[in-house]
Amino acid sequence: MSSAEVEAEWLALLALRQIPGLGPKLAAALVQHFGSAQAVARATVDQLTRSVPRMSAEVAGQVVSRLRSDIGARELERVCRLGLALVHRRAAEFPPLLRQVESAPLFLYARGLLRADEDRTVAIVGTRQCTPYGTRIAEEIARGLALRGYTVVSGLALGIDTAAHRSALQAGGRTVAVLAGGLGRLYPPENRPLAEAIARQGVLFSEHPVEMPALRELFPGRNRLMSGMSRAVVVVEAPERSGALITAKHAADQGRDVFVVPGRADSFASSGCLALLRQGATLVRNVEDVLESLGEPTPAERPAPPSMGNSSVPGTEPMASDTGSPSSKPPAPVPSDLSEELRRLLEAVSDEPVYVEELIEKMGQPAQQVCRNLTLLEIKGLVRRLYGNRYQRLHPG
Questions:
Q1: How far apart are CA 172 and CA 352, in angstroms?
Q2: Which of 146, 218, 253, 318 could form a disulfide with 171 if both were Cys (CB 3.0 to 4.6 A apart)?
Q3: How do residues 179-203 score in pLDDT, each as one tens digit?
Q4: What gap in Å lies between CA 367 and CA 356, rounded to an integer?
Q5: Residue 285 has pLDDT above 60, yes or no
C-alpha cells in the first residue's frame, strides 16, 4: 500500500468502530469478508447484509452512510490531539497472546510504552469492594510478578485492580490497564493519577473510540481482552456476581490458566473464588504458587531479576533498534503524496531517536500540530514512537 492508501484504510477502520450496533466482532467479520475496511466502505447495503450473518439492513445502512462521511477523520483528530497510538492486529506491538484469540479486535487504541514482546503477562482481577486481606494479597502477587519481569494486566477499576497496578509500579515493573471505555474518557475518574503513572511506565489499551463512555455493557468485552493478552488470570476476592468471574470464564474459554486465591468460607468477597475452586481452578496462596503453576524455575535455578532502578525498569527499556546510534540502512524514501508540512517533519526525524520537544522547536509550530503530524507519519509507517516520548525514522526492509 502507498502511504495514502494506508491512511485511507485507517480512516475507514476508525469510522467502522463508531457505527452504532456494529461491535468489534462484526466489524472484523466485515473486513475479513471484503478484504479491507476501504472495500467495506465501497459495498452496498445489499452486499453488506448478504456478507455477514445477523447483519441487519439498519446497521448496513449506517455502515454505508457513515463510512462515506468524515467521522474517521474526526476520530483521527481526537487520536492525534491526545497523542495516542493506533495498533493494528498485524503490528508487532499488538499483544501477541491477544492476537491468537478469535475475538481479537482489528486494532487497539494505546497510550504509553508499547512493546513487541509483551508475552510475559499475568492478569490480576477482583472485586472493587475488597477487604484489607484481598488488597494485601493482590499487592504481594503483583509486586512479586513485577520483580521477576512479568507485566501485570488489570482493568484500572477501584479495589483489587488498583492495588495490582499500583504495586507493580511501586516495584519498578510494568503494568497494562485495559479500559472498558475510550482513552479520552478515563474511568473511574478517581484513578486518573494512576492512569498517568501507568502511561509513563506501562500502557493503557482500549478497543473503543476515544470518547466512548465506560458503559456497563462494555465491561465483559474489556474482560476478554485482559484474559486474552495474559498467560494466566489470578482472581483475588470476587463475589459470586462479579466481573472478575467473567474474566475467569473468558480465560478458560481462551485456554488460559485460571488461578484463584482462597478466602474465608464465610466471606462474601470470596464467595465467587470458592465457587471457582470447586469448579477446578488452581488454588494459589502467593506469588511463588503462581510462578510454580506457570512453570517458572525454582528460586535456586532462577537468574537474578534485572535491576529495578529508574533507568532499567522492565518494560521501559528501549525497543528494538532504539540504541541511540545511527542505523547503517539508508532512510526510507519520502513518499510523493506527502504534504510539504509532513515532508519537513519527516526530514527532521533521523536514525537517532529525537525528543518531541526538539521537533516542536525545529518546526516552529504548536505542540498539538506537531504531535498530530507525528501520528500521521506513524500511521503511514514512516516513523515510530520510542520510550521517553521520542521518535525515530523507519528504514526499508
A1: 27
A2: 146
A3: 999 999 999 999 999 999 999 999 9
A4: 9
A5: yes
What are all long-range contacts of 245-254, with beta carbons under 8 Å and residues at least 24 apart? 245/272, 245/275, 245/276, 246/219, 246/220, 247/123, 247/125, 247/223, 248/125, 248/276, 248/281, 250/220, 250/223, 250/224, 250/226, 251/123, 251/227, 254/101, 254/224, 254/227, 254/228
21 C-beta neighbours (distance < 10 Å), count: 12
CA-derived radius of gyration, the chain = 22
| Type of residue found at 248 | A
Q: What does the buried/exposed string (b/e) look like for 340-365 if buried means 16 or more CB atoms within 10 Å of the residue's CB?
A: eebeebbebbebebbebeebbeebeb
For 128-139, the pLDDT digits (tens) are: 988 999 999 999
Closest by Cα among 155, 212, 204 to 181: 212
Say whether 394 sits in a helix, a strand or coil: coil
Of 74-83, 280-289, 338-347, minimum mean pLDDT range: 338-347
Residue type, 243: G
What is the enclosing helix (H) or strand (E) of 178?
Answer: strand 174-178
Q: Give residue for cell 516513523.
A: 383
> Residue 323 pLDDT more than 80?
no
* pLDDT (tens digit per residue) in 230-258: 999 999 998 888 889 999 999 999 999 99
Please, are residues 80 and 372 in contact by the beta-carbon 8 Å criterion?
yes
**Quick one: pLDDT at residue 219?**
93
Tell me what the mean pLDDT of segment 288-314 comes to: 58
